[in-house]
Sequence to fold (83 residues):
Amino acid sequence: MTTIRKRPQPNGALHNAAMRGTWKALRTSRGMSATLVCPGCGLVGLLDEHEIAADGTVRPLVQCPGAGCSFHDTVRLDGWSAA
Fold:
């Protein structure tokens, strides 16, 4: 399991290498979700097709769609509390 840390404020540049492995809460029409910066390649993705448990565990596994990126793991959003 990969633990993803909450993105510090202010947002800053999402493609900065220091932002890899971070998340930010996002309110959608279906409720709370999150954006995630892939810890492998830095690509920003939306977890809207995933369920996020009260402890921050994301299901199903998160797979980066980035070309050449092999990140595919269960993740836990550190600090998640239904954001």
